[in-house]
Amino acid sequence: MTPAAVDPTCLEPRLSTVRAAEGTISELWDCLGVQTRAATGNLVALTERMHLKKVEGALAGLQGRYVGRQIIGVLEGSDDTVEVQVSLVPQEGGRYVERLVLHASEDQLRGAILPLLRPATLNYIWWAAERRPGGPLLTELTELADKVICDSLTLDIRPGRHYALADLGWPRLSGWREALAQLFDRPEGIQQLPGLQALRLTYAGQNPLPAQLYGAWVADTLGWPDLGGVTVESEDCERENGDLCRVELYGGGAHFVLEAGEGGVIHAQAEWAGGGFQSSLHLRRLPLAAGLAELLADARPHTAFERAWARVRSEPRWTVDLPTVR
């Protein structure tokens, strides 16, 4: 909640330029009478106008955690001088984050973003656009990044030596990963692991990438040498595009099934010689802001994700012709 003593004009966005933006930010802080600022990281979010409100909503959901400066680059062509909309956005606990919004082409953003970054702090890059990067912008930003957040399989952005790679599809799968792990909480279930040889996944819509990533994670966790035993197919299960519908893991006389039900419930069934069980559990779904927060909470690489990513990219059946950002 914004303190009553705050002059509302201090929170109104102000138009500035790249060169003058830092001075405008200082004026806004002076207007609020704030002497101490949190020197936390930079988050650069690149998106399109149609997704701007969604991105701003996700950033607002962070409530000032992890990053103190949010730079939103809205990708739209313009021959005009790049204007920067500068504001201080109130957060819980009387805190504020600096938000700078630029509407510009990729070429213009190349020269505009670097001067706006706070020095000597963590840099997070979030490619929140549907379009694939057509120029060197994203490549150049990865040179500055501590973590890159994107749809990594679609963009074919590879894990780098100097930055951690993260994908919003990974926390989206966390509920299904937890559900599968719970199938083997019982000692009898654990005894079936050595015999498991095949995995069949179905997903909703036309986006197989989350299912492929999940299948690669299962194969890696079970120590399978490759993805030959993993099948991924589309199914009409009335879920969002890319969401998992059903997971079947079987072999050695055992059969484990997870199936999406109504109301965010997963129905689980396990069968093996002389035993088995059925249960239901609630699927933990993360809103965009929560998924983003989970990825920002740790700038280090997530090795389980990166191993699964590498398996997907090396599977010939799943290889598609995508532009490569190195």
TrEMBL record:
Pfam families recorded: OpcA_G6PD_assem, OpcA_G6PD_C
Q: Any idea where the Glucose-6-phosphate dehydrogenase assembly protein OpcA N-terminal domain is?
A: 65-157
Which positions, given as ranges, span the membrane?
none
Top-rank taxon of the source lineage equals: Bacteria
Q: Which InterPro entries match?
A: G6PDH_assembly_OpcA (IPR004555), OpcA_G6PD_C (IPR046802), OpcA_G6PD_N (IPR046801)
Q: Where is the Glucose-6-phosphate dehydrogenase assembly protein OpcA C-terminal domain?
A: 164-309
Among PANTHER family, the record links this protein to:
OXPP CYCLE PROTEIN OPCA-RELATED
What is this protein identified as?
A: Glucose-6-phosphate dehydrogenase
Q: What is the lineage of its organism?
A: Bacteria, Thermotogati, Deinococcota, Deinococci, Deinococcales
